[in-house]
């Protein structure tokens, strides 16, 4: 699974792209830090088994704040976010939510799966797959496989009762962890290593530029 380091680097890359003139060191660290916080459900899963990739890896962690932010920015006469943090408040908030969605929740959903709609609907969905164009089958996607009108078992996985994602903190479930290797990944594939280096480099360059401009 993508490590916290990869998530943070990806979030930093999105922050560099989306923050525009609102970029500064504190803001980008906030965006990256929020992305890292979602992996705290690794520790929650130790206390409440099955909630890793569920408690904080779901669409509500983004959709609920997004709905409140949209209401605050468009439907209220006076914006609480703007009054508290000025004109940059909404840009920073939307950038943070974009990072949470794309750099963490969906990133994990398309790599071994997450419990997308927990706790409203307790089911892990693994969207791992590919998108291809072939000379015989045309456009082919295997992210979501359907059987009739229902999601196929290859896409829908188990529930919090019978699904466990191994981590360095919690390598096994319902078994003694004595002698089990605890692995804390940084970048488990070459692609994720390149993404991590690119993200952290982009953030570093922007931070240096921002400090020089001051």
Description:
Helix content is 48%, strand content 6%. Strands 1-2 form a two-stranded antiparallel ribbon. Helix 1 packs across helix 2 and helix 4 runs antiparallel to helix 6. It has 214 residues and is mainly α. Strand 1 and strand 2 form a beta hairpin.
Q: Tell me the structural class.
A: mainly alpha
What is the straight-line distance between the termini?
Answer: 39 Å
Instruction: Provide the helix percentage.
Output: 40-55%
Calculate Rg over CA atoms. 19 Å
Mean of the pLDDT scores?
91
Number of strands: 4
Brief account:
This protein is mostly helical. Helices cover about 50% and strands about 5% of the residues.
Give the helix/strand layout.
Blueprint: H1 4-18, H2 25-37, H3 41-47, H4 60-75, H5 80-85, H6 88-109, E1 131-134, E2 138-141, E3 146-147, E4 150-151, H7 190-213
Antiparallel strand pairs: 1-2, 3-4
Helix pairs in contact: 1-2, 1-6, 1-7, 2-6, 4-6
């Amino acid at each position: 699974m993508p490590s916290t380091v990869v998530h943070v680097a990806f979030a930093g890359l999105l922050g560099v792209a989306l923050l525009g003139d609102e970029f500064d060191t504190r803001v980008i660290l906030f965006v990256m830090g929020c992305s890292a916080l979602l992996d705290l459900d690794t520790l929650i899963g130790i206390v409440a088994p099955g909630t890793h990739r569920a408690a904080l890896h779901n669409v509500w962690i983004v959709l609920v704040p997004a709905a409140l932010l949209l209401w605050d920015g468009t439907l209220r006469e006076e914006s609480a976010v703007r009054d508290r943090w000025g004109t940059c408040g909404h840009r920073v908030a939307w950038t943070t939510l974009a990072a949470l969605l794309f750099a963490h929740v969906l990133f994990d959903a398309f790599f071994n799966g997450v419990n997308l709609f927990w706790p409203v609907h307790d089911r892990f969905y693994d969207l791992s797959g590919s998108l291809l164009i072939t000379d015989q089958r045309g456009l082919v996607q295997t992210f979501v496989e359907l059987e009739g009108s229902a999601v196929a078992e290859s896409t829908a996985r188990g529930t919090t009762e019978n699904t466990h994602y191994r981590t360095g903190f919690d390598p096994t479930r319902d078994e003694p962890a004595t002698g089990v290797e605890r692995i804390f990944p940084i970048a488990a594939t070459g692609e994720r290593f390149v993404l991590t280096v690119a993200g952290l480099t982009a953030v570093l360059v922007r931070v240096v530029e921002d400090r020089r401009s001051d």
